[in-house]
Amino acid sequence: MPPVVYDPWPGSLSLFRMIIDDFKNGYAGVYCYGFQLHNYGNTWNFKILWENRFFTIEPEYIKAILATQFDGFEKGPVLHEQLNTILGTGVFNSDGEMWKFHRAMTRPFFSKDRISHFDIFDRHASDALNQLKTRLREGYPVNIQDLASRFTMDSATEFLFAHDFSRAFDEAQRITSFRSRRGGSWPLQEFWSDKKKRELGEQEKPAGDREVRDGESLLDHLINYTDDEIVLRDEILNILLAGRDTTSNTITYAIYMLAEHPDILQRLRQEILEKVGESRRPTFEDMRDMKYLRAVINETLRLYPAVPFNIRTTSKPVVLPAKNGGKPFYLPAHSKMPYSVFLMHRRKDLWGPDADVFDPDRFLDDRVRKYITPNPFIFLPFNAGPRICLGQQFAYHETSFFLIRLLQQFSSISHVLEAQPPSSRSPPEWKNAPGTKGTDKVRIKSYLTMSMMVRFSRSSVVL
Question: Which positions in this protein are listed as binding heme (predicted)?
Fold first, then answer.
């Protein structure tokens, strides 16, 4: 068995309190570094209220979970129940035949031809950037996460259907994340009501035309597979979560990093101006040729992956292979197996001594051959294996398009810390902490996806 994290309290109550406090007030997953310092390694066993969990940041074991031993892991009934009222039986919250059904009916819509038409991105990016410039000219700072969230929500809802419920969706995700931290005891916290149902309310049932035609929405496409309104609603919500939140967070963190590293911003802007110019709309071929842009996005996804923590449940007893001359690990059936690409992406033994430094060149220089090529599972911002993200290229395109349009019009960006609510700023006591905890000026929040609050002001606008 993997080493057991010691907790003297019954039910590991002190560990439970530490995890909840880290979720509310701490820097994402920082408590895990303490486990490593106490020689538990990169995989350990702990129990929360007597519920067995095996946590790992080991790429070989994450590879087993996602790919090589895929059949031994599932989302599982407990997670399904926790997420049911927001994600239902959708692709992110289903197993077995139901998962295969959702995957099969959604996959055709993410073909290269469909995700390479940028009319939706162009329309909503123009709207967002025009409003950004108007706001900045009036002398106000702008909350970039809010702007990016509205851009990706507008794009995603046009891609799916015309319906906006950003605020309720955000709150529903926060409540769902608390459920997973509380483990199997979560229903006790919601004895009298289902908080997510109260937040989301009764959403409209999707409806649409059965005819298949050019320009159809994803909803039009899905209706060709099923008339079940619940299945349709669940899948739309699942794809909306992927299409809105993950890309919004990536855009926000990328802009935050560009503000913190003006030399990288100038180099990226130079590539954009050379490849696309000051006003031309970028094409798929442009994006394919912009190596530094992809490196900036990849480095953002490495340090700030959209889904920093994830979880599976063993569907049967599993044996994980031995590592570094040690013994294999045995996992009993029906055990929870959380894993973190956020923490794995920051391991210095996997990425080098500068793993905490934002450096897009690591995806262009000899560090690719040294670290990534021999072990590609050290970089998993979109998961891997049979459940790899169907929208991976869609996300790259949307993020690339927005950043190109932004830097065609802005020559520099300033981060205005005093414009942020105090609760969104890193506390002074974090300043000398190791890693990005000591350098980040904003608090990271991890719900179902990673988010942050950050505001910017006008520095230099190219009109």
Answer: 389
Instruction: Give the CA angle between residues 95, 173, 195 to the nearest 5°.
Output: 100
Q: Which two tokens stand for residue 395?
A: 């996300």
- Binding positions for heme are 389
Top CATH class of 57-183+215-457 equals mainly alpha
Sequence ranges of the domains in the chain: 57-183+215-457
DSSP run (H or E) holding 402:
helix 392-409
Burial (Cβ within 10 Å: 0-12, 13-18, ≥19) of residue 416: middle
DSSP string, 233-288: HHHHHHHHHIIIIIHHHHHHHHHHHHHH-HHHHHHHHHHHHHHT-SSPPP-HHHHH
In this prediction the pTM is: 0.85
Q: Which helix (H) or strand (E) holds 173?
A: helix 166-182
How many contiguous H segments (helices) and E segments (strands) does the chain have? 20, 12
pLDDT tens by residue, 64-89 = 999 999 999 999 888 888 888 888 88
CA distances from 53 to 12, 134, 327 (A): 12, 50, 19
Q: What is the pLDDT of residues 208-228, one digit of tens each?
A: 343 335 666 777 777 777 777
How many CB atoms lie under 10 A from the CB of residue 319? 12
Return the closest-CA partner of residue 12 out of 29, 36, 31, 25. Answer: 31
